[in-house]
Amino acid sequence: MYPAEIFPVRVRTTCHGIAAAAGKIGAFIGTYALAALLPEPKGASLENLSEQPYPASAVALGVAESRGTRTPSA
User: Fold this and answer.
1) Which of 15, 51, 54, 65 gives a 20 to 30 Å CA spacing to 41?
2) Where are the domains of the chain?
3) DSSP reduced 3-state for 39
């Protein structure tokens, strides 16, 4: 509430614009930075990756999360 009462409209709108631009720039940089941290598929095609079965625990965890019944981790 204080910024709305203390600063004039021109200053507030300028700061909101700067904050919005910084958020967009951060999202752009974050998209490329996080993509570099993902593991490489080691030359495997998507077809080969989709044919590999998941471990039973991963499947059970996915079902529990989709139903909302997963117990919180300690």
Assistant:
1) 65
2) 2-67
3) coil
